[in-house]
Design a protein that fits this description.
There is one protein chain. By secondary structure, the protein is of the alpha+beta class. It has a domain of 250 residues. It contains 14 helices and 20 strands. The strands form 5 sheets. Strands 3, 4, 15, 16, 17, 18, 19 and 20 form an 8-stranded mixed sheet that branches.
C-alpha cells in the first residue's frame, strides 16, 4: 500500500508498532525502511535518554544496561518510506454483521465487497499488540457481531447468525504470553479497545535543541565551551553570540583543553594572556562558582542550549527600529513594547527565526501515560537503542523573566538567596540556589526553591501559549515549549505537527507584541471550574493544561497563583 505523508506526520502517526487509519483501512507500522541517521550530539542524547529511562523505571540497573548499548538517532527516509501491514485482519459485513478473517470472498449472506475492518485490538503493558480472538458457533462455524455504539469492548455481543445462539459478551479472555501483571491492574490478561485509543499506544518523547550539524556545537566548544556561554548569559546576552565576548580565564582554559592541550599547559597559557590584558575579568561566577557541581553543570548546560538556540541570530525589539519605520510604529517599538515587557515582568522578548529544535521519540507505553503505573517500551535498532526524530528549523519567541522580580517573588515565598548587588550577581544567585526537580516526580507538598521556580516558569509558558495561539490564529497544538528554568527563560516555538504557517510568531512580534503581552497580564485568569480547581492544585485542563505533545512535563508544576493573586508574580509589576 502506498500513501504520501510528511516526515512530521510519520513521526507522530507511524512509529513502529503503532496503528493508523490509512486509505479507509487500519494498518500497523512494521518498520521504517532505511532510515537516515541524524547528526546530533551523541553525549547529550544518551544523557537525556538515560534520564528518561530512570524517570520511567526508577531502576539504575536498567540505566546501566542501556548504557552498554549504542544509541542511534534517525529520521524517516522519504524515498524509502515506512512499511505497514493491515491490522487487525478482522472484517465485519455491513449488511448482516458476520465476522470473517479475510475480505477476499463474499459474505455468506450474499453481500459482495461490503466488509468493514474492526477497530478493536488487544494490547498489554509489555508492548504486545494482538488481534482479538472471536468466538465462533461450534455447530455452524459462524459468528456475527452486533452493532457496537461505544468503545467499551466488554459490551460487544457475539452470536451465531444461523441459530441465533449467544456465544459471548466481550472478547474472550486472553493471557499475555509475557506472564507479567499490569502495574496497578494486577492482571495478566490483554485489554481490548479501539486501536486509536491513547491507552493502546502513547509515544514518549523529549525535545532538544539540535543545531543540525556538529559545526555549531564545535564552534560553541571552541569558543570556550559551556563556561563562556554561561558568562555570556549572566552578563545579559549583550553580544549576539558567546564567541563575540572576550575570553575569561576559565573559558580560555576550556577552549585549549578541548583542542588537545593539557590542562596544566592551558592554565599557564591563560595566566600569561591575563597578565597581558587579553582576557576579561568576568570569570567570577559569584555564588554560582561555589554552588554544588550539579547546579553549575545544569546552569552551563542550559546556557549552552540557549547559545545554540540563538546561534543563527535573534531579533531584539531595538532591532525593529530601522530606517523607514513609520512614526506610529517607531513610537510603539520605542515606548509601547518596552513598557509592555516590563509590565509583564519580563526582562526581554526576542525572536529566534531559525530555532533548531528536534523532537525525539524513544519509546511508547500501552495502558496509560503515568510513570510508575505502566512500563516503558524502548525502540530497538540494529546495534542497540533507536530514537526516531524530526529535526527542523522553526521560529520561536524567547521570554526571559526579570531576575530582580524572580528574586523578590522567591523571597516572598520564604526562600533565601545569596546576596547580589547587580543583575549579573542576581542571575548567578538564582542559578546557584536552584535544584530543579525531575519532570517525572509529582509536585511536592513542601515546595523547594527549584520546584517553585520551575512552577513559575512553566505556568508562565502555558499562559503565553494559550494567549499566543489566539494572536497567531493557530491551535495550541501547533506550538511547543522549551524551558530553561535555571535562568528564568523559556521558548515558545512553532511545531510543524499542526496547522501552523511559519511567520505567525514573527507577525505577533513585529505588530502585536504590546497587545499580546497586555492580554497575558490582563485576560481572564480565573478557572471556570473554581473553586474545585483552586482547591486541587490550581491548574486543570480548563485553565492551564495543554496537550502532552506540547507539554513535556505531564502538566505538572503548574499553579495559577504563581502568576496571579496576592502572591502572584505578575502582581509585583503593578
Amino acid at each position: 500500500m502506498k500513501d504520501m505523508r510528511s516526515g512530521t506526520q510519520v513521526l507522530y502517526g507511524l512509529l513502529p508498532e503503532q496503528t493508523a487509519d490509512l486509505q479507509g483501512g487500519i494498518w500497523k507500522t512494521v518498520e521504517w525502511r532505511d532510515p537516515i541517521p541524524v547528526d546530533v550530539d551523541e553525549a547529550a542524547i544518551r544523557q537525556r535518554l538515560e534520564a528518561e529511562i530512570l524517570g520511567w523505571t526508577k531502576d539504575q540497573g536498567a540505566v546501566r544496561a542501556s548504557r552498554a548499548l549504542d544509541v542511534e538517532v534517525v529520521k524517516v527516509n522519504e524515498s524509502r518510506g515506512v512499511k505497514v501491514e493491515r491490522f487487525p485482519e478482522i472484517y465485519i459485513c455491513r449488511r448482516c454483521r458476520r465476522v470473517e478473517s479475510t475480505r477476499a470472498r463474499d459474505c455468506a449472506c450474499g453481500a459482495h465487497n461490503l466488509w468493514q475492518q474492526s477497530h478493536f485490538v488487544g494490547y498489554h503493558e509489555c508492548g504486545r499488540l494482538e488481534e482479538p480472538r472471536v468466538p465462533r458457533c461450534d455447530r455452524h462455524n459462524q459468528v456475527s457481531m452486533d452493532y457496537q455504539p461505544t468503545i467499551d469492548a466488554s459490551k460487544i455481543l457475539f452470536r451465531c447468525p444461523v441459530c441465533d445462539k449467544h456465544l459471548h459478551r466481550g472478547f474472550p479472555f486472553r493471557r499475555c504470553p509475557c506472564g507479567r501483571q499490569w502495574g496497578k491492574r494486577g492482571s495478566h490478561a490483554l485489554a481490548f479497545t479501539v486501536h486509536r485509543s491513547a491507552s493502546v499506544y502513547s509515544p514518549q518523547s523529549f525535545v532538544v535543541i539540535n543545531p543540525g550539524n556538529k559545526r555549531r556545537l564545535i564552534e560553541i566548544t571552541e569558543a570556550g565551551g559551556p563556561r563562556r556561554a554561561l558568562t555570556w548569559l549572566l552578563n545579559g546576552m549583550i553580544e549576539d553570540r558567546p564567541s563575540e565576548r572576550r575570553h575569561t580565564t576559565g573559558s580560555l582554559v576550556d577552549q585549549l583543553v578541548a583542542s588537545g592541550v593539557s590542562r596544566a599547559v592551558a592554565e599557564q597559557m591563560a595566566s600569561l594572556a591575563a597578565n597581558h590584558g587579553e582576557l576579561t575579568s568576568e570569570d567570577d561566577l559569584g555564588p554560582l562558582g561555589t554552588a554544588p557541581s550539579d547546579r553549575l553543570l545544569r546552569a552551563e548546560r542550559e546556557a549552552t542550549d540557549l547559545a545554540l538556540a540563538t546561534f543563527d541570530g535573534r531579533v531584539r525589539v531595538t532591532d525593529l527600529l530601522t530606517d523607514g519605520v513609520p512614526p506610529a510604529m517607531r513610537d510603539r517599538y520605542s515606548n509601547g513594547y518596552p513598557a509592555a515587557i516590563r509590565r509583564a515582568g519580563l526582562e526581554t522578548v526576542e525572536l529566534a527565526d531559525r530555532f533548531p529544535v528536534m523532537r525525539a521519540v524513544y519509546g511508547f507505553t500501552r495502558g496509560g501515560t503515568t510513570p510508575g503505573e505502566v512500563s516503558l517500551n524502548l525502540f530497538s535498532g540494529k546495534r542497540g537503542r533507536r530514537v526516531y526524530a524530526d529535526p527542523q528549523q522553526s521560529e520561536a519567541l524567547m521570554f526571559r523573566l526579570d531576575p530582580e522580580l524572580i528574586r523578590r517573588w522567591l523571597n516572598d515565598r520564604h526562600h533565601r538567596l545569596p546576596e547580589a548587588t547587580d543583575l549579573r550577581g542576581t542571575r548567578a544567585a538564582i542559578a546557584s540556589a536552584i535544584d530543579l526537580p525531575d519532570r517525572f516526580n509529582e509536585q511536592p507538598g513542601e515546595t523547594t526553591v527549584g520546584a517553585d521556580l520551575l512552577t513559575l516558569v512553566h505556568t508562565y509558558a502555558h499562559r503565553v501559549i494559550r494567549q499566543l495561539s489566539v494572536f497567531a490564529g493557530v491551535d495550541r497544538e501547533s506550538l511547543g515549549e522549551y524551558l530553561l528554568p535555571t535562568h528564568g527563560t523559556f521558548f515558545v516555538f512553532a511545531a510543524a505537527r499542526g496547522d501552523f504557517v511559519l511567520g505567525g510568531l514573527q507577525a505577533v512580534f513585529e505588530n502585536d507584541l504590546r497587545d499580546f503581552l497586555d492580554a497575558v497580564v490582563d485576560a481572564e485568569h480565573r478557572c471556570p471550574l473554581d473553586p474545585a480547581c483552586e482547591r486541587n492544585g490550581g491548574a486543570c485542563h480548563a485553565c492551564s493544561h495543554l496537550g502532552e505533545p506540547v507539554c513535556g512535563h505531564f502538566n505538572r508544576y503548574l499553579r495559577r497563583d504563581a502568576l496571579f493573586g496576592p502572591a502572584g508574580y505578575l502582581g509585583l509589576t503593578r
